[in-house]
Amino acid sequence: MMFSSHPHPARARRAVAATGLLAAAVLLAGCSGLANSGSSGGAAAGDAVTFTLATGAQADTPNAAVQDWFMDRVEAVTDGRITFERTATEALCKAAEVADCVRDGRAQIGVTVPDYTPQYFPSTSMVSIPFLSQNAQAAMQSIYDLHTDYEPAQAIMERNGLHHVATWPVGRLLLGAHDPIENVGQFQGAQIRVSGPIIQQAIGEQGGNIVAITAPETYEAVERGVVSSVGGAIDFPVNYKLMELLPAWTDPGIGQYSTFGMWVNAEAYAALPDDLRAQFDEVTEELNSGAGIAAFNDVAAGQCQQMLDSSGVDSLSAWSEADTRAWKDALGEGGQEMWIELATEQGLDDASGVLDAYISGLERYADAEYDDATSACVTSFAGR
């Protein structure tokens, strides 16, 4: 799939841990799974490097497809000089602990939902502002631009010992329940699992009780009655098996609401030889410029058929325009204001400027080619 966005060359990253870099490289090689060959004094041209993966992405999901495309491509472009020790989902670290695993060096590359540790990722959480992001490619590219061009976004990652690779939306928000949720009035008193700090507040303001659990924990919570409704992307009914428990699914019109992210340990990234770092950056740009969303959509398109074939799913429908508009009007500019306040509290400098830059990116890439698998699935259900 081709995209009509307009990527630009990645800008030079700010150096991380420049003082003592060789010692850091040796420490990572011996203790943290960063394997270098041929030099006892740190990575040099010609050395091979192995990054250990910690992931919260379930196998065979669109998010795992993005992760796997990137690792496959890096290994190919570097002729195997960068390789990845690919651990299974949550085998090394639980989904909510992946960022900490990367920060402390137990893993060198991590993939999970940033909202599980939102204090580290205020520069990416604006995707959770309701009704703001509809085009996933535009959102992914805009966040990438922020972390290559905009100092406050770069600084928050640097402060937390992470190097940003990619952040992509998980898909349009769907609401799953025993009976269809068709307007905000039905949030009242419901026990709802959803991730994303602002969408959580937006549902809470309408009377919903937010249950903060990770995606892998959701099936058991619904089965036990701890959660009565869920908010999640199309992988929730399919890959997390929730269509076995919840037969009614609706699209409220929010659009993109949460993300998966991929990061590497900042010291491990800085310790790469210059030529490998340049190749790593080239693949990173390729990922963010369309290849990542293409890999995501290839898998997402197949999820709809699984819902259509499931005996457990009675319906997948969209809210009426009037009900979507009523929620959007009730929220007004509150979502953006909530995000600015929250991101500032989490240490992001110039949160208002970061949000403006993100919105400008959405406008710049608004024409990026993007086929939304969830919207297409709603249409398929209407026609069956």
The Rg value, from CA coordinates, equals: 21 Å
Low-confidence stretches: 1-42
Strand content: 5-15%
- Measured as a percent range, the helix fraction is 40-55%
What is the overall number of helices? 14
The separation of the N and C termini measures: 27 Å
| Major beta sheet summary | 6 strands, mixed
The helix/strand order is HEEHEHEHHEEEHEHEHEEHHEHHHH
Tell me briefly what this model is.
The protein is an alpha/beta fold and 384 residues long. It has helices at residues 21-31, 62-77, 98-103, 136-149, 151-159, 197-205, 215-224, 235-238, 266-270, 274-309, 321-331, 334-345, 351-364, 373-382, and strands spanning 35-36, 49-55, 82-86, 109-112, 162-169, 174-177, 191-193, 209-210, 229-232, 248-251, 259-265, 315-318.
Description:
It is a single chain. This protein has 384 residues and is an alpha/beta fold. It is built from 14 helices and 12 strands. It has helices at 21-31, 62-77, 98-103, 136-149, 151-159, 197-205, 215-224, 235-238, 266-270, 274-309, 321-331, 334-345, 351-364, 373-382, and strands at residues 35-36, 49-55, 82-86, 109-112, 162-169, 174-177, 191-193, 209-210, 229-232, 248-251, 259-265, 315-318. Helix 2 (62-77) links the parallel strand 2 (49-55) and strand 3 (82-86). Helix 4 packs antiparallel against helix 10. Mean pLDDT is 88; it is low at 1-42.
